[in-house]
Design a protein that fits this description.
The protein has 249 residues and is of the alpha+beta class. It has ten helices and nine strands. The strands form two sheets. Strands 1-6-5-4-3-9-2 form a seven-stranded antiparallel sheet, with helices on both faces. It has a two-stranded antiparallel ribbon with strand order 7-8. Strand 4 and strand 5 form a beta hairpin. The chain starts with a helix and ends with a strand. The chain binds calcium ion.
């Protein structure tokens, strides 16, 4: 049976165009079909023995559980800010609108996030094309009964950044979103937004719950590298990226 399948497979390969042959090879080889991109050496995959250990040894992980409960994949390649925001709004328990796809249940989704006030900040169609800046992220969040404290990366030292974010990660009921340049931490490639869920003191690393789950797993990144990646200039705003501390009003 195996020999017959194999011979048929060979016959099929001969008749197929080159691209299909390559795809067929990838399917057969398994390892080449990884769904997420490989990580550079400076990052630690959360879904690994080492990544797990860093969480178990973390003393600043209050936000991990509510955020992981609400962890979603961004619905298009520019919606990282929207996906990150709804995770935080749902984790905070902010009164949500109805989500038509769930009948009478209320939940923030990437489709109902843009209420009238948010649409006045920036239109969803524009965000779907080019994403959002850090200041727009803060204003969009404030369209939803939360206080968003925006810090640009170029305005804070590494120590200030670490102190503010670690304090938040030790407190329940408030959250941190980071806006950083992927390239600066060894990823592909542009600006990105995701929630931070925990801190490991011994390794001085933050856990980013990356909302582009089709592209990268959650990673532990060195505080200094994340800080540098936030101190990069976003060409849309002309300002540095940074982070947002989100609290109930
Ligand atoms: Ca917190």
């Amino acid at each position: 049976m195996i020999a017959r399948t194999s011979r048929m497979g060979v016959l099929k390969l001969i008749r197929l165009p080159l691209q299909a042959v390559i795809v067929g090879f990838c399917l057969a080889s398994g390892g080449l079909l990884a769904q997420t991109l490989p990580l550079s050496q400076n990052l630690i995959n959360f879904n690994s023995a080492e990544g797990e250990k860093l969480l178990l040894e973390s003393s600043a992980l209050k936000d991990y559980f509510p955020l992981s409960t609400q962890f979603v994949t961004q619905k298009n390649q520019a919606y990282c800010g929207v996906a990150s925001s709804i995770m935080v709004l749902n984790a905070l328990g902010i009164p949500a609108p109805e989500a038509p796809e769930y009948g009478s249940y209320h939940l923030f989704t990437q489709d109902n996030f843009f209420n009238t006030q948010a649409q006045n900040v920036i239109a969803p169609e524009v965000v779907a094309q080019k994403g959002m800046t850090l200041d727009q992220l803060g204003k969009l969040l404030e369209s939803h009964q939360v206080k968003a404290e925006v810090h640009h990366g170029g305005d804070v030292t590494l120590d200030e950044f670490r102190t503010m974010v670690v304090k938040n990660l030790q407190e329940p009921g408030n959250f941190v979103l980071v806006n950083y340049l992927r390239k600066a931490i060894g990823q592909e490639i542009g600006g990105h937004i995701s929630p931070v869920a925990a801190y490991n003191k011994e390794t001085d690393r933050f856990l980013i719950l990356d909302v582009s789950r089709y592209k990268y797993p959650p990673v532990w990144v060195k505080a200094s590298e994340l800080w540098q990646a936030m101190a990069t200039v976003d060409s849309d705003s002309g300002k540095t990226r940074g982070f947002v501390l989100v609290n109930r009003r």
